[in-house]
Amino acid sequence: MPSVTYAGQTVSVNDEGFFTDPGQWTEEMAPEIAKGEGIDQLTDRHWQVIKFMRHEYEGKGTGPTVRILGKTSGVSVKELYQLFPKGPAKVAAKVAGIPKPRGCI
User: Is-contact 21 12, C-beta < 8 A?
Assistant: First the structure.
């Protein structure tokens, strides 16, 4: 299993770069992960989505799809694509340190 270092901590990831243990994630890691996904700076709106993703994962065992994210996170689907251009659910999950949501390619 591959590993990477974020914010000075080495964590286990799968072949696509998603955390294998979401408990290893810290908020300090998020900006580094985001930069690797082409997001220069995390805004309050990014954090709203990231925290929502973690909350959903903790409650349901999986991250929400883009459709659910757009309906329940308080951020519209259009804005999600502006915040996370390479794929909102997939990239937000990666930045949030949770596994890739079901249904993401």
Answer: yes
pLDDT tens digits for 69-96?
999 999 999 999 999 999 899 999 999 9
The tens digit of pLDDT for each residue in 15-32 reads 999 999 999 999 999 999
* Residue keyed to tokens 């955390």: 19
Catalytic positions, written as ranges: 104
Q: What is the reported pTM?
A: 0.93
**Total number of domains in the chain:** 1
The DSSP element (H or E) to which 92 belongs, if any, is helix 88-96
Q: What are phi and psi of 73, to 5 degrees?
A: -90, -15
CATH number at residue 33: 1.10.10.370
Residue 28 CA: distances (Å) to CA of 2, 15, 65, 79: 20, 22, 25, 24
Examine residue 78 and state whether it is found in any structural domain, yes or no: yes
Residue 41: count of CB within 10 angstroms of its CB:
8
User: Coil, strand or helix: which one is 10?
Assistant: strand
